[in-house]
């Protein structure tokens, strides 16, 4: 894991979901401090100071101004399917305050969904953005809004996130896993600990305006990954289901409507980050 500089740097997180929480833990483990805004009270990891999502709150504004690094994992409005449009909630509330700050580093967690469907071809950070779903179009708009700020912004486009308590193992354990068969449909994944590790690596090697794909080394069919998870747990995989978009929720159908292979070369070569879990096999085995 990257070692932070010895001045107990402060990471200010907008939102503390699965990825940001892992990043906060890694940051604290390396000697840093973390503060995070929350819309509603939730349990916080040890060492994280909870703050209201309110620019009028004195403590929130104070720590935002003191932050060495700022990380936003808050999705744009409309990610849940509502009609509020692509407005970024953080920029809507804190835009004026952010414009006057001088952090060393700023990060925004986005999605590889902004590439849209390329029918299984490889994409990298220079590939055209052609999002299909409203959620992904909103993400593209949010990326552009963050990158337009007078701040050292870095964008991370995340593939399918998994890790302890979330992903194939948890789904197989809980009986909610689906082994959908659609031959040739592959996708990348990224372990939550690699998200945290790459964020820390970027803080140590800032490159304002940079965009990084967060993806593993091996795009794989979802059914194959579910089968591997079941094998690790010593149980039978769930019954195979033929792909049928008419029987799926709109959210699930949109997931299967896109296919791409995501290159992580910029992350591993330019940033120099070495994946802890280069494929789903190492990541799932480590969870056991």
UniProtKB/TrEMBL annotation:
SUPFAM superfamilies (UniProt xref): NAD(P)-binding Rossmann-fold domains
Record InterPro entries: NAD(P)-bd_dom_sf
Domain of life of the native organism: Bacteria
Residues spanning the membrane: none
EC number: 1.1.1.290
Enzyme class: oxidoreductase
GO MF terms, alphabetically ordered: 4-phosphoerythronate dehydrogenase activity
Keywords carried by this UniProt record: NAD, Oxidoreductase
Protein name (record): SDR family oxidoreductase
